[in-house]
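Issue 218. Parser rejects a valid record. Input:
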Amino acid sequence: MAIIVNAVQQHRNKVESEKRVEVAKQKNVVDETEEILLATEHITVSQQLKFIFQQRIVNALKIIAQVNPGVMDINSRIESASNKLKELSANQEPISADSFSLPNSDKQVVAYIKCVKKMRGLLRSEYTKGRVDSSAFMVEDKYLERLQLRANVETLMRRGESSMQAQQLGSARQCIEKAITALDSQSQPDDYIIQRKQELELQLKQIQDSLRSANTEDVRKRKESERNELDELFSEKKKW
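Output the parser choked on:
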């Protein structure tokens, strides 16, 4: 009898432990998704993408309620999250990446790019689970990819300009070349990619011309210095 009671208790403990793990997992889903939605105040995204993220929160809360109905305020949280979902239109036309604005500091740029990457990861996760249809996924993922590209390219251009102002042409060239490589990696170039690439290639040519000119001048000065040294070495010494 004691063995049976012990086995039943162990089973109950296991079930309760699994419930706690699942609830904690879903709470993390809610927290990270709410954080991403807060970031959309600074990163322009479509209503459709916000809808997808808000739906993710609702789904996670419902799982919590199903696993452990006794979680405090879970029903009111589901109701609140569902109301927010109703306020969002899942059918709004996607917005253009032309609304992109590069953050001021490098620290903000890094945070921006990390956030966009996180959005892409969450979007793909929802798509993999069958919660987002293929057309919506492709549209939103492409938009986020373009935001990520612009942040990368515009940052490299900004650094390149700073290096040029500091007369660090080698560093400027590296930044411009990296930006061009990033643009070349896109299989379906849009107007932004085509225009930026033309601008960067022209800028790169100007930098290369300046570097060649500087190298030519260095060679001329070095030869002149060597010639002066030879002239001095072989010139007749003054007699005292």
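Fixed in the parser; the record now loads. Residues 55 and 61 are 10 Å apart (CA to CA).
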